[in-house]
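Postdoc handover notes: sequence design on the structure in folder B. Input tokens:
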């Protein structure tokens, strides 16, 4: 499989890790949109939110439990946004499930 995030999770492509365990990896976005912009991915390949099933949903729950810890570790005490783009119209640039943690400044109230 030629998936960029699978290669990052496997250590084949370097990243600036902020958290890792046996199920997930969190690393800094190479093109940050906010002062703190972290991507959180499952190590197993799931194409996107549209491929979450009963069988793989536990890793998504684990991701969300860790997002809170990562945000606290980043000092995002005043709030942050969690985003996952899905598909071409949702501007998903890498077809591997990932969640953006965006924070470190007052965010715009608009979602689009």
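Designed sequence:
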């Amino acid at each position: 499989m030629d998936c960029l995030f699978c290669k990052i999770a496997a250590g084949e492509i370097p990243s600036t890790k902020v958290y890792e365990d046996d199920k997930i990896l969190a690393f800094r976005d190479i093109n940050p949109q906010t002062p703190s912009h972290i991507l959180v991915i499952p190590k197993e390949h799931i194409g996107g939110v549209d491929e979450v099933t009963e069988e793989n949903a536990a890793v998504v729950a684990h991701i969300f439990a860790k997002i809170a810890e990562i945000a606290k570790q980043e000092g995002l005490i005043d709030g942050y946004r969690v985003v996952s783009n899905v598909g071409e119209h949702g501007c998903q640039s890498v077809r591997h499930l990932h969640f953006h943690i965006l924070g470190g400044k007052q965010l715009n109230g608009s979602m689009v």
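Context for whoever picks this up: The helical segments are 4-9, 57-73. Don't rerun without checking with the PI first.
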